[in-house]
Amino acid sequence: MLDHLTVVKHPLVQHKLTIMRDKETSTAGFRQLLREISLLLAYEVTRELDMTEKTIETPMQTMQAPTLDGKKLALISILRAGNGLLDGILELIPSARVGFVGLYRDEETLEPVEYYFKVPEDLGDRLVIAVDPMLATGNSSVAAIDKLKEAGAKNIRFLCLLAAPEGIKRMEEAHPDVPIVTAAVDEKLNEHGYIVPGLGDAGDRMFGTK
Ligand code: URA
């Protein structure tokens, strides 16, 4: 079992994250770094996948060699910023099924409202990795995971780039069975719900919008 919270302190992850945080980093640079960092985070979030062995012939002899046990994966991107993490992870796990959850925040109730939900049918048979770069208030992440559980998901991990203590607490309370993997835990949220020091709006930084 992964710990409830894993902070990936690998030097390459931390170095790339620092460049991503820098407001002078271009959209192209940000996107490229997100792709690279997502490969390294994917390595961590898949650390404890079940293994089995199979018989192969090397040029020298027969051997029993370790291989993934074929347990199926589903990667779920929480729109829109989740797509930036998704692309890199798919390079590492090209056979994973992919789903999308779109939520927006109702400006009056401040509650997340679903506008898109398309996930693989057999979620209950898969290890589900939900991805969203920023775990801020946790409201949309919790709502997305609620929806995934309603759709049958039983074994879920949550992968993000940056987390705020408030979001981690909210996730731990709502979904204590969902391990979180992140590159860093920042100081706090500001009054607008942004992570500080953070990196700004991840979607805007990766897509060049404002
Ligand atoms: N979403 C972002 O993109 N950035 C934050 O700081 C918080 C939520």
Automatic annotation (TrEMBL):
Gene Ontology biological process terms from the UniProt entry: UMP salvage; uracil salvage
EC numbers, comma separated: 2.4.2.9
The keyword Transmembrane is annotated on this UniProt entry: no
Stated regulation of activity: Allosterically activated by GTP.
Superkingdom field: Bacteria
InterPro entries linked to this entry: PRTase-like (IPR029057), PRTase_dom (IPR000836), Upp_B (IPR034332), UPRT (IPR005765), UPRTase/APRTase (IPR050054)
Residues involved in uracil binding: 195, 200-202
Sequence positions that bind 5-phospho-alpha-D-ribose 1-diphosphate: 80, 105, 132-140, 201
Co-factor remark: Binds 1 Mg(2+) ion per subunit. The magnesium is bound as Mg-PRPP.
Pathway: Pyrimidine metabolism; UMP biosynthesis via salvage pathway; UMP from uracil: step 1/1
Catalytic activity: UMP + diphosphate = 5-phospho-alpha-D-ribose 1-diphosphate + uracil
SUPFAM superfamilies (alphabetical): PRTase-like
NCBIfam families given in the database record: PRK00129.1, upp
Protein name, per record: Uracil phosphoribosyltransferase
